[in-house]
Design goal:
Low-confidence stretches: none
Protein name: Glycerophosphodiester phosphodiesterase
Structural class: alpha/beta
Shape: globular
Order of helices and strands: EHEEHHEHEHEHEHEHEH
Number of domains: 1
Organism: Fictibacillus fluitans
Bound molecules: SN-glycerol-3-phosphate, magnesium ion
Number of strands: 9
CATH superfamily: Phosphatidylinositol (PI) phosphodiesterase
Number of helices: 9
InterPro entries: GP_PDE_dom, PLC-like_Pdiesterase_TIM-brl
């Protein structure tokens, strides 16, 4: 059965990439979470989507220019609603301490396609293993060099290239990277592409699927997972609760 991954948590109803958003996604029926990881100035993996803190906190500047102590002062919830004013940017470690106590699957997106973060791959990999999450974690990135680096570290992990438009025969590209999965933009997945990926045994987890008609399409096809801002809508469509 197609799994449901909450994109940055339950980011339609909570400020993205906060603990409130992850807890809500679990409540709403997500079976997995997609999160985005950057490094602070002092090299600590933190969970936030953008390279800068401007859009999702009350601060401004690049994540890479904040120490952990500085970034922890920021309010990561009020931009969304005052009810979330006490949300902070989670460290990856805090997040892992929590998720390991749940049954959730995990997709960590390494956000190093615009900023270079020294040793991001190794740091994230070590933390995931230290918290016993290795078997439940998929690594994705728009930076495919990072994925190849991870593959070199460990032949047994699931790595998934993210991309933004129509790749020609994505199964060939996945094989070239040593990837068992792809995370494509949902609109690129025409039936022949889905069929080709299935024929080549490549797992497919489209992003970001928020519309009933597309959710239905992917559940019908039984792709491996959908990545969505609306885990409750996805669950309702999967359950056939929506006519
Ligand atoms: O992992 C799927 C999706 O999160 C990729 O794009 O920009 O939302 O991180 P973005
Ligand atoms: Mg992401």
């Amino acid at each position: 059965m197609t799994k449901i991954y909450g994109h940055r948590g339950a980011s339609k109803v909570c400020p993205e990439n906060t603990m409130a958003s992850y807890i809500k996604a679990l409540e709403l029926g997500a079976e997995g979470l997609e999160i985005d990881v950057h490094l602070t100035k002092d090299g600590i993996p933190v969970v936030i989507h953008d390279e800068t803190v401007k859009r999702t906190t009350n601060g401004k500047g690049y994540v890479k220019n904040f120490s952990l102590q500085e970034i922890k002062q920021l309010d990561a919830g009020s931009w969304f609603s005052s009810e979330f004013q006490y949300e902070r940017i989670p460290t990856l470690e805090e997040f892992l301490q929590w998720i390991r106590t749940t049954p959730l699957l995990l997709n960590i997106e390494l956000k190093n396609n615009k900023v270079h973060y020294e040793d991001l791959e190794q740091k994230v990999y070590n933390l995931v293993n230290a918290y016993g999450m290795k078997e439940r974690t998929i690594y994705s990135s728009f930076n495919h060099y990072s994925l190849v680096l991870l593959r070199g570290m460990d032949p047994s992990i699931d790595i998934a290239p993210l991309y933004t438009s129509n790749l020609y025969k994505p199964w060939n590209y996945a094989n070239q990277l040593g990837a068992w999965s792809v995370h494509p933009p949902f609109k690129s997945l025409h039936p022949p592409i889905l069929e080709g990926l299935r024929r080549h045994n490549i797992s497919v987890r489209p992003y970001t699927v928020n519309k009933e008609k597309w959710l239905y399409y992917f559940f019908q096809y039984e792709v491996d997972a959908v990545i969505t801002d609306l885990p409750d809508l996805a669950l309702a469509v999967r359950n056939g609760d929506i006519p």
